[in-house]
Known about the structure:
Elements: H1 2-21, H2 25-47, H3 54-64, E1 69-73, E2 76-79, H4 80-97, E3 106-109, H5 114-125, E4 130-132, H6 139-149, E5 153-156, H7 161-173, E6 177-180, E7 190-192, H8 194-199, E8 218-223, E9 233-237, H9 238-250, E10 258-261, H10 268-281, E11 284-287, H11 293-303, E12 307-311, H12 314-319, E13 334-338, H13 342-352, E14 356-361, E15 370-371, E16 381-382, H14 385-390, E17 393-396, E18 398-399, E19 404-405, E20 422-427, H15 441-446, E21 448-450, E22 458-468, E23 473-479, E24 483-486, E25 489-492, H16 493-500, E26 506-514, E27 523-530, H17 538-548, E28 557-560, H18 575-580, E29 590-595, E30 600-603, H19 606-613
Parallel strand pairs: 1-11, 3-4, 3-5, 4-8, 5-6, 6-7, 10-11, 10-12, 12-13, 13-14, 27-28
Antiparallel strand pairs: 1-2, 8-9, 14-15, 16-23, 17-20, 18-19, 20-22, 21-22, 22-23, 24-25, 26-27, 28-29, 29-30
Helix pairs in contact: 2-9, 4-5, 6-7, 9-10
Amino acid sequence: MIWFTVLAGLAILFFVFLKSFSPYFKDDCAYILRSIKLGIRLVKYKKIKPFYSILDSFLDAVKRHPDKILLHFEGQQFTYGEADKKSNKVGRALQAEARLKEGDTVALFLANEPSFVWTWLGLSKLGCPVALLNFNIRSKSLLHCFSCCGAKVLIASPELQDAVEEVLPTLREQGISVYLLSDTCKIKGINTLSEKISRASDEPLSPQLRANIHIRSTALYIYTSGTTGLPKAAIVTHERVWAASFVQAACGSTSADIFYINLPLYHSAGFLIGLAGGIERGMTLVLKRKFSASQFWDDCRKYNVTVMQYIGETMRYLCNTPEKDNEKDHKVRIAIGNGVRSDVWSDFLNRFGDIKVKELYAATEGNIGFINYTSKIGAVGRVNPVHRFFFPYTLIKFNIEKEEPVRNSEGLCIEADRGETGLLVGRVTQRSPFIGYAGNKTQTEKKRLHNVLKKGDLYFNTGDLLRFDHENFVYFQDRVGDTFRWKGENVATSEVADILSMAQSILEANVYGVKVEGHEGRIGMAAVTLKEGEEFDCLDAYNKVTNYLPAYARPRFIRIQPCLEMTGTFKMKKVKLVEEGFNPALINDLLYFLEPEKKSYVPLTEEIYKAIGARQIKL
């Protein structure tokens, strides 16, 4: 009895010690165990024959619970069994009309709607890779994205008919078959599909139609957002689909959860983590045509949502909605996403309750990612030895001005110190490959970094600057190129944007560096939008940037815009703004200049602009 008491006491002391000196020990153990289980499953899927895909996972879910709701959408609901039959009809109609066979790539130009789901499932049953086109792109970008993937068939929503018609002559010249999910269309060269789908049989399609598909086969083409130019088509293999679908499981969701997808399905977050992850879990999904801050919580209450998804600025939009008494009246327990600022994260929790925010770091085409499984505010992940063993990576020193890694006398990269910002690179291995971009060898090679830690090794260059702290947390700092250099100092655009957004009149800010003739580097400038009914408060904005930012980081120019140009996933576009610079003769928007002598921002006149060019005003 005495020994039992002593052992119990020692055990209590041990756990108290761990709690004091390693407060995340329990979280680490739980995540590592979960990761090992998921890793074993992925290894099993790699070896199993015939190949077991996410489609097979869906078909198993159909067998287990055909009457369980798969999708809620605008008052409609569709069960797993119904989705299976609808996808059979789509597959058969396309097999007959487009003569599709295993390996043929099909481009989907569809909005967030249920037909997206069974069109993809139907094509998967035929063994066809699918290119997910951004439904916001038009003209040159649309043709570029379509051409990248080598598709011979395009399937579009009726509401996107005008965009298709615009590029139709080029598509017809290339012999592309174009189908509209509609009953009628009077435009020559566009075929209708809805009636043919309704007449098709819903009998199961033979697995032999996709008999040669394997773990490294291309499943999807997902396009990068194109913040710095035309989008690139990332090749997503079936192995990558599985790995991304496991994010939900790694974050703790189960088949009993109800998952809310309000992000575009053409993007990896909405499709891979949301749709594929929901199918992997066998859960019910609530699909939204587009994100709506005003309807968000009403939807969550209506459908008993337990897991939500966010990206970019969506969480901030929620925090900007008018406060209501019932804000914590919901069942959401987990939020999965990326890109939330620390202050918004705190505001979100204060307003909407104890939701476990699982912030992610990943890239569609990348071979390394992190999950902040502890919900520590501000971190995008956590370093642990098991993760690093399976997916080797490192942070290396990076020269911001030259935009290249720092190398030693032997030509090798230098690892960044703990607490120091560095470029994240992931070693390319059999377990963590980098496939690259379809039809773009140049961009693929740009992402390959050779001779990193030893001669002959190969790493994937994420293009992201991160920092590992002394508690093993991972913090995102900035994108390479989103960091600029002024007065010999590096300026992180995200940090400056956070400070500007603290100003009373400013709603959001897009920060970038612009060239000034006769000066080295790039000086800070910001395009901002104002809160409704507000005018730009020059003095308040000046006080914020001077109180919180060093002189070299303060944006000297402010551009007031009615709205900021965004990609479909709320990433701010900068290229055009950088090119336009700060010449008031060429820009119709209101421009302001930070005037230290007046301790305020002042309207940027042509006189001031000319004085800057003549070096009469010191920057």
